[in-house]
Fold:
Amino acid sequence: MIHENNFYMGIDIGTFETKGVIINYNGEIIASHIVKHDIEKPQEGYYEHDAEFVWWNDFCQVSKSLLLKASLKNSQIKCICSSTLGSDCLPVDKNCNPLRKAILYGIDCRSQKEIEYLTNYYGNEKVQELFGRPICSGDIATKILWLRNNEPDIHEKAYKFITGSTYIVAKLTGKYVIDRFLSRASFRPLYKEDGSVDVEYSSLYCRPDQLAKTAKVTDIAGYVSGDAAKQTGLAKGTPVLTGTGDSTAEAISAGVLKSGDLMLQLGSTLFMYCCTDHLIEDDRVRGNIFTIPGTYSIAAGTNTAGTLTRWFRDNLFADIFSKEKESGKNAFESMIEGIDCIPPGSNGLIMLPYMAGERTPINDPKAKGLIFGLKLEHTRKHLYRSALESVAYSIDQHIDIFKECGVNIKKIVAVGGGAKNHVWMQIIADVINMPLLITEISIGASYGDALMAALGGGRFKNFSELEDIIKVKKRILPNQKNYAKYKFYRKIYDELYKKNKALMHKIK
Structure:
């Protein structure tokens, strides 16, 4: 029975932190909790998480803390949904014990040899048919092949090759399932459109039985086991949904529910989801079906956003960061002071934010960061503003591509930690020359998870009903004078990569 004493839990595991919320019958957050963790970089281009220590430990901590903060009995949680980093690769044994640390999403580019091999093996025409675009570091199939080539013992022992959402569900219920949308988006060409394993193509990478079954994100995958109940504080038998990737959950939290809705997820990286009414096929981005029935999506992502601002904090604003605990003022708040007084274009300073290679739209893991136009008059504030502008230029590049593909963008919503930076949001609005919306609830993917838990748990009938729940807090309008100036700098931004690509590739 659905009534007002029912509550729903959503937990999202991201690159640097895990967030969880409990919502009530009306979609209001009654408790939230955050646990921070770190990312491991064993060598250049390698990024990993310890799945048991980070993913599962965080989930257990957050679920217990949420129940405590909300002062609820665990039996009042009627459904749970979780999301994690989308395109990760984790080999596990039959008891869901990790056989190695998880290889993270597109920022981990260790599988470049595998990408080159597969591109030559299939040929460009077949690659387009199977992947819908050039093969990239975000494709989990390339990571599985890397394990086969470099860690054959682990590859052979693996009971399943899974991503984070599957791992959490398996730990909770013993069932190995993956969101059908995520399977098609991240595991190409291992699954067919109907969600079944493509035996013909998967054999190059692994055995068909080493892959999880697919289900809809809002399907009940299983129920919390007795052992999981002890570890998480949840009630045994609580329904657990299939779950999905963090960006999908974040898109739902932002109200990306119909064609023309675009999400800018400004977390550690920048990720974009645009809901469309037709399939987009363009080498520069990723077209796919979408979680919401009857819709498609364009997915795109850069390798830096929050990691870029974090780099500036740690290296150029270290003095401010060191005083953060003493002053009680967040370092990022201090870093933006006075930034809005610097004119658009940072007095002729332009940055390419490719400090960890780049995903879309250039799809070049060998790309390098670049600071162009540096003069003696420039300060660290100018450098920082140019970094914020560089991310905005990248967003504008993507929007141009979406429009070229026939997408009529009607709504743009900014979410994630970066959305709290009001100067950055104004810069983005000015560069793209479109209004930018900020939602009332901006905690992100965990809220999207909770809303989907409410949907899967029967509180809502369909995704459309969520529109009445998700409210807009702020509408940021573009400044036309600033837009005119940014048009000039955006052209130079585009040219800088084209003219320096060959030189970038010479530097290891």
In short: DSSP finds 18 helices and 22 strands in the chain. The mean pLDDT is 95.
